[in-house]
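Consortium newsletter contribution from the modelling node. Members have asked for a concrete example of what our holo predictions look like. Here is one, prepared for the alpha-D-glucopyranose complex that several groups have been discussing at recent meetings.
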Amino acid sequence: MTSARQPFLALIFDLCKQTRLFKAIMVMLSPLLQTLTSTHHIRTKQPRHVVEQVYEKSMEEFTAETRAVFEKPLSLDRLLDYSDKLQKEYKERLQSSNISMLPSYQHTLPTGLEKGDFLALDVGGSTFRVALIRLCGRKENGESEIQIRRIRNVVIDKKIRDLKGQEFFDWMAERIADMLAEYNHMNGTTDARLPMGLAWSFPVEQTSPRTGKLLAMGKGFCATHGCEEQDLSELIMRSCRRKNVNVEMRAIVNDGSATLVSQAYRDPTARMSLILGTGMNAAVYLPTTALARAKFGPRPAAWFRSAAHVLVNTELSMFGKHTLPTTRWDDALNAAHTLPDFQPLEYLCTGRYLGEIARLILLDAIASAGLFAGHVPELLTEPYALDTRLLAAFEADPDPALSTASATFLASHRLPPSAPAPRQEDWLFLRTTAQLVSRRAQAYLATALHALWRLRTREEGLEPGCDGSAVSIACNGTLAEKYPGFLQGTQGVLDALCGEGMGVGEGGRKVALEMAPESSILGAAVAVCCAE
Ligand code: GLC
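And here is the predicted structure:
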């Protein structure tokens, strides 16, 4: 708010306010500005001992403004337009990109007959999973079975994410050693040697079915520091050898590809997968002709002779920068990120970022509209301190008073003792914020998947809507599994896009999202068989 006595300055200030960068900076600085400038806003309408805080706007105005910037870009015609633009982006990167649309060495899908015991690793954004997996092959009832005989989930917290280079792989080797010891104990052996498969939740430039160059890692990891472009398999095996861990790396796949191959072991029609957790990604089984030859790098001629299709790690998170509209809070998150613009779709849609977007909105509402009477709850000024699970809690709370969700919020983000008790409208605003952020994420994800399905359909020489074009997408990840209504909401938008987009309306579901729990860790084992 500026003084009327300075129209020229006010005009300049207003003109500046129109720039996105200025808005992003203002979002970041709003708590500080609120504190520094609050003296200007205090008016003594009552006796001196009581002062009233006056804000730039009311909570109703702030809520309406927030709703508008989140919902306006989500009309069906706009989403279909984004899908067309994303399809063009995908085609460009299938021709030339060294960090997305990455072809694996996997050119066959499992038959479901494969058998054996494997040690499987799954390095995710927040969990490292080590498991003993048994592929049982096809049973009399025609179903192929995979058993998890042992599994350990190890939390990856900031301390582990901060491990640099070989330290991170030494940490992995210790957990692998523990699981191998369990295998020996279960089997009465002392020095069993297990084939191992790795599902790696980051981009890798595959140089063989069991090797690949380490590429940039998002999600706040530092393991690449000093190891960029080194072979991932060798980094892990070097640590295992140092600790006398008797394993052999036989397959490395991206977690998206692992999810697809494990679903294909049980469902021969599987052709696409979605990872939706801390990060996001999709894998798709495409004709090799969909990619430029240069994308494959130096491969034996025999590989090309036998490969009609190839499993592609799309790194879908890296798309959308020039297509999907963002808000000033998204721009502030991106501006403050260690890897700005690296994964635009991920920064708008996943477990690591939905809470952060909401945190920036809440700080803005506190400073400019008096949410929580202008008081900042504990930790809320700390980047990534607002957990996406809290948004889920506000969406899931059946109590109109939001008593459970608000108590959960205050347990992590206490208000200062001097603050008045939060009003019902404060909690309702928090739930509205959660809904706006998560529904936009669902719409953008559905649009990105619709674009990938349309591209795959075209590359297979099919017409969208004809029988062969229908696919099921194997889904895995904590957001898909645990955020209430998230997958269903994404499916709803997908149905609308597929129906409207082709003008066929009904005619059955063209793209079905199907949960495939544990498919990433299972796929690490299945990938070993495929690699053979
Ligand atoms: C990130 C990684 C990608 C991974 C995804 C899901 O986007 O870049 O490789 O598949 O997270 O874990």
